[in-house]
Amino acid sequence: MAVTREGETESSQFTPNTDPSNTKEFSQTLQSFAESEKVQLSVFSQTLQTPVASQRRHDWVLNVPEPPGLLSNLKTSFKKTLFCPLENKIQCLGKHPVPTLVSILNVIFPPLSWCKEYNVTKFKRDILAGLTLASLCIPQSIGYATLAKLDPQYGLYTSVIPPLIYAMMGSSRDIAIGPVAVVSLLLSSMIPKLEDPTTNPIAYRKLVLTVTFFAGAFQAAFGLLRLGFLVDFLSHAAIVGFMAGAACVIGLQQLKSLLGISNFTNKTDIISVLTSICKSMHTARKYKKLFWLAAMAPLLSVIMSTLLVFLTRADKHGVKIVKHITGGLNPSSLHELQFNSPHTAEAAKIGLIVALVALTEAIAVGRSFATMKGYRLDGNKEMLAMGVMNITGSLTSCYVATGSFSRTAVNFSAGCETAVSNIVMAITVLISLEFCTRLLYFTPVAILASIILSALPGLINISEAKYIWKVDKMDFLTCAAAFLGVLFVSVEIGLLLAVGISFAKIILNSIQPGTEKLGRLPGSDLFGDMEQYPIATTTPGALIVRVKSALLCFANANFIRGRILNLALEEQDEGVMDSANQDRVQLVILDMSNLLNIDTSSIAALEDLQNDLESNGMQLALANPRWHVIHKLRLANFLKKIEGRVFLTIGEAIEACLTSKNMLPI
Amino acid sequence: MAVTREGETESSQFTPNTDPSNTKEFSQTLQSFAESEKVQLSVFSQTLQTPVASQRRHDWVLNVPEPPGLLSNLKTSFKKTLFCPLENKIQCLGKHPVPTLVSILNVIFPPLSWCKEYNVTKFKRDILAGLTLASLCIPQSIGYATLAKLDPQYGLYTSVIPPLIYAMMGSSRDIAIGPVAVVSLLLSSMIPKLEDPTTNPIAYRKLVLTVTFFAGAFQAAFGLLRLGFLVDFLSHAAIVGFMAGAACVIGLQQLKSLLGISNFTNKTDIISVLTSICKSMHTARKYKKLFWLAAMAPLLSVIMSTLLVFLTRADKHGVKIVKHITGGLNPSSLHELQFNSPHTAEAAKIGLIVALVALTEAIAVGRSFATMKGYRLDGNKEMLAMGVMNITGSLTSCYVATGSFSRTAVNFSAGCETAVSNIVMAITVLISLEFCTRLLYFTPVAILASIILSALPGLINISEAKYIWKVDKMDFLTCAAAFLGVLFVSVEIGLLLAVGISFAKIILNSIQPGTEKLGRLPGSDLFGDMEQYPIATTTPGALIVRVKSALLCFANANFIRGRILNLALEEQDEGVMDSANQDRVQLVILDMSNLLNIDTSSIAALEDLQNDLESNGMQLALANPRWHVIHKLRLANFLKKIEGRVFLTIGEAIEACLTSKNMLPI
């Protein structure tokens, strides 16, 4: 067995991609193998090679091809970004080298890819899921419209057109489109600064529609320009914190509505009913069979409470009711969009924020369910679909729609197969808009508040926050900042804090990176961080350091220079104390294997370091420099200054510098 | 020879830091050596080890000590920052474990370290250098004060007190302290927005002094808080661009003054004289003996032109002259500082910008000469010295002083030994303030403009700009942005652009990092970037990738996941085409050796990647994860999900996964 394994690896090492029938090449391979084996057998360590082999490896390091320049890099990245979607390169290039009409249609309308396999069984499941969805969606839509300070029917409108558009263009099969709590909160917290919804509801609504248009335009633009990565700027931790904060803010707002029903006789009962609903929502996730209860409960509550108010005429005793809801199809709102008002610039800004938050929520939801079912989402296509759906929405009296956390879960649990469930839901909502709005006249406002409240616990993910705390304390900081920012300052500040902290983390990591001492792992030619591998041992006479950063640049080069110099001087002092000048550090090896790039400031710092070390009787050697690094070091003539002290591995550096006679006598 | 070398390396590999007299340890070492040798000899490649050795190495990776937590990290970094200067840790800790009065004094007053060795020879040289410096300093100071829109004497005041303070507290021995062109320009471009220097010169002066106070306070604070790294935020490239831009702006301003001398008879002569002076300045750098000419020329020009104006009374024919310069010692300006004015906040902001620019110039100058002479500068101490000197300056009618590029070069060329040359210069300026200001009455303003002009070419470093272009195109972008920003917009915008681009570069590098395919370097167990090492060969059945970033985080994790997945699918497709399913990629090895940290978002992306790969018939293996990475992967339970597929090296990953029978049948 051992022999076979050996043989296998030998050949895989030395004859990759060669055809054994090519005898000349094969014999060469054999020869090189024999040579290497001799080397391997005659010396102990891998680094101890014949001068020829060592020289050859030296050449590998020094004679690298020129890396692509800035321009060609930019061109490649531009091409990749523009002409090839991130996540389905294969689909757009591999299989269709020349785009056909079908392939283009397939790209624009992803449902075409599954519609051939669509059958009656799947359709039945989708109808079932769509109806379930509608029963949850109708009361939620009315509630969220109220949260966004719009008339109730706008929530319902938003549950008609956007789902239909998404069903045609979107690639997710599970996501449930419509108004959501966080976006409604965002709108109602930012737009009233420009127009007051109570004194001037029509101007407010026009502004909401304009913001919706801008949000859609930004989303579509992100999709077309392939800026899918923008969504990632809100990190997972930030979303967890932001959602929880938003849920708390909405909850506090809704409690006011809920407690406004002072004269309602069964007040406590309703609360307890809703607490149980809210609990059942949670348990339903665990007991899949019970999800019906959770999904239907809001509609049942609405029907029951409306009936109760109608029968007791509690509205005459102070219970606020929804009253008139305009029925009928979505009216056109083209004339309501305002591009010349003094608020247009501000509306565009709000549109951008809302666009990003809506996309983040939708893509987070979409991705998690896609991963569960094993298909892939194209972030850019999703953005385009969301954009088109919101632009269309803004023309048909809808406000910003996106994928809802709670309803998507219900859709999934109800067994949806494709986006057809969204179509079924939209049609159901449309029918209720046409025929049932009168029935909702007596619906108490408090019940809508309760329905919103019941959806909130789903936004607060304590176990995820705990997980973040356990795994990454800095991530938790982002999460906590988003949460507290939203809760105590404002939604925008919370978002800004989260994004700011996330990027500050990246920069901080680059500004003051640590350095680590490397040691040899016993019995190998591998060198590892001495703190990570306590088993690693130092090499007398040499200090091996690595920078904990991918960039040696203006912001950290002097810091690192100081660190390495101090480390070297300390080691030298210790060496002097320990043994009589024998183990004195003569060589500082900088392992550059993780340095991806350097700049002119850092080359200057390296030169200074080399001078400083030399004046203290030490030498600098570089191990394993990467492509751009070695190229720039050559251009800057630094390679000449440390000629002969650039190596492929740390082992070779030790071998060559500590045993060679060229070493300066110190 | 070969045998000795072998023996040496063996012992250095296996018995580092062990005392041979300790027989037990020694025998253990021998045993482990024998074991390893057996392994080495019995198999071909280093990775092909006995199951025991392989298991042992596996344990090294998985059983790492817990890395220090966030709090202990913060504590360490806080301690290091506060209690130990960056660049002379040895001095403050190593040699004086308990601080004595002497050691404290040594830290506060660095000159104490050289004053013992100070002797008459050195003193003579310092006097010579100081006098040379004064001859250049007096006309420059008057010129820069005019540039800063202050009365001429303020320039002279600034050349008295700050150099004296610096000589006591600073650690550089070459730097020449006083007013400089760039800072004067900065003040005169920012402060007039608050107070107009022509209509209200007293209020303007008060504001300048207040700004000076704030600048000093910020500098001292940076020094005390050990924020020395702040200076690095202006990268080398940015400074080159910024200085050149500032020189052009100043030059254009001064040309106006120069061309204002329309009635002066010898106009063209003066220009030609100054052109020659300017040329001689440059050649003087090359011909060290001639630096006298350059250093003395401005003073000589002043004397000659003053005499000429006095004799011809050209001032009556329209030649603008300096007129009255208030003589005498620096007056106190304590009462001129304004901390209650409406401009105080703005003054503090300007103070901060000026403080950073002044420090950047001083430390850049100081460092380059320290490196030349082979001593070390402590950035934090320098900051403290600059801060105290500017605070004291603001109380004694000085404006912001710092280290001057041109005068430091003259000081160095004149053979200065210590900061005593600054004292000599200060005393000389003081004497001229006391006795010679009347002599400057007839000095034409044009000659001051010319002196400023003559110092400008030294700020424009075209060869350095060329070098930056050659080595690093992105750095050149920073340089060009700083230059053009200063030239065409404003000094602050130029600075902001340079700093902004520098940091944007860092962030961009982290957001969309590339991935690289690794291949085996022939005859070794090393894997390198296949583009860098065209000699590297792929391993059939495995795709080895590395992320070109030190952080796998929210901003790039999904991008990288997509990239790796696409790469794997492409390789798989090619494999299928090439040979009948034999070389089909079954294993994707992610080399994590350069990933320093991950966050929860990236762990989620890794989980998704693992799922995506599995559903395409591939497996994910990790090689060489770093300390924090493996720790977080364990906390997140990801290690359990890819149990047995985390390895120390890529070679081991290939060995274990491609030959083991545990591999999923595909």
Automatic annotation (TrEMBL), chains A, B:
<feature type="transmembrane region" description="Helical">
    <location>
        <begin position="165"/>
        <end position="187"/>
    </location>
</feature>
<protein>
    <recommendedName>
        <fullName>STAS domain-containing protein</fullName>
    </recommendedName>
</protein>
<dbReference type="InterPro" id="IPR011547">
    <property type="entry name" value="SLC26A/SulP_dom"/>
</dbReference>
<feature type="transmembrane region" description="Helical">
    <location>
        <begin position="290"/>
        <end position="311"/>
    </location>
</feature>
<feature type="domain" description="STAS">
    <location>
        <begin position="552"/>
        <end position="657"/>
    </location>
</feature>
<feature type="transmembrane region" description="Helical">
    <location>
        <begin position="439"/>
        <end position="460"/>
    </location>
</feature>
<feature type="region of interest" description="Disordered">
    <location>
        <begin position="1"/>
        <end position="26"/>
    </location>
</feature>
<keyword id="KW-0472">Membrane</keyword>
<feature type="transmembrane region" description="Helical">
    <location>
        <begin position="350"/>
        <end position="370"/>
    </location>
</feature>
<dbReference type="Pfam" id="PF01740">
    <property type="entry name" value="STAS"/>
</dbReference>
<dbReference type="GO" id="GO:0008271">
    <property type="term" value="F:secondary active sulfate transmembrane transporter activity"/>
</dbReference>
<feature type="compositionally biased region" description="Polar residues">
    <location>
        <begin position="10"/>
        <end position="26"/>
    </location>
</feature>
<dbReference type="InterPro" id="IPR002645">
    <property type="entry name" value="STAS_dom"/>
</dbReference>
<feature type="transmembrane region" description="Helical">
    <location>
        <begin position="127"/>
        <end position="145"/>
    </location>
</feature>
<keyword id="KW-0812">Transmembrane</keyword>
<dbReference type="InterPro" id="IPR036513">
    <property type="entry name" value="STAS_dom_sf"/>
</dbReference>
<dbReference type="InterPro" id="IPR001902">
    <property type="entry name" value="SLC26A/SulP_fam"/>
</dbReference>
<keyword id="KW-1133">Transmembrane helix</keyword>
<dbReference type="InterPro" id="IPR018045">
    <property type="entry name" value="S04_transporter_CS"/>
</dbReference>
<feature type="transmembrane region" description="Helical">
    <location>
        <begin position="207"/>
        <end position="227"/>
    </location>
</feature>
<feature type="transmembrane region" description="Helical">
    <location>
        <begin position="480"/>
        <end position="508"/>
    </location>
</feature>
<dbReference type="Pfam" id="PF00916">
    <property type="entry name" value="Sulfate_transp"/>
</dbReference>
<feature type="transmembrane region" description="Helical">
    <location>
        <begin position="233"/>
        <end position="252"/>
    </location>
</feature>
<feature type="transmembrane region" description="Helical">
    <location>
        <begin position="408"/>
        <end position="432"/>
    </location>
</feature>
<dbReference type="GO" id="GO:0016020">
    <property type="term" value="C:membrane"/>
</dbReference>
